[in-house]
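B., you asked whether I could sanity-check this one before it goes into the benchmark set. Here's the sequence:
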Amino acid sequence: MGSGGRHTEQVDGGRSAAAVDARTLTGLRAIVRRARGWTCDIREVALDDQAGKLHVPLLARVDRRSPSVRVAAGELIVRRVEDFLLEGAARTRWFELDGLAYEPATRRVSIGSGGRSQFAVTVEALDVTLRIRPQSRPR
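And here's what the prediction gave me:
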């Protein structure tokens, strides 16, 4: 915890309570830990090819008794994207984010669930950020 009880995560020299930045495998693991239980609606994923960014909005369950009610919890942003590939996502509308992997030899970032990749992104260099919405921070 940071001062004033605010939740802060410093990964790879990270900066604020509202974001977790990753430029290493350790940073990717910190993002997965922070976003555990959040889901992605594949229809909302957007690739900004001009800026070279992939935007993956993440949702959290509001109430365990009502799993279909979800609110925006954060957004995963992959920067310096060169190539984007849908893998398992064509058959899936939702997936729970529980896996981020980076293969340095191929410069490939995989985003997935249950050990299966949903998206594969080739990047110039590893640069991923999890932006956290204020209402989804731990209390």
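One thing to flag: The CA atoms of residues 102 and 109 lie 5 Å apart. Otherwise nothing jumped out at me.
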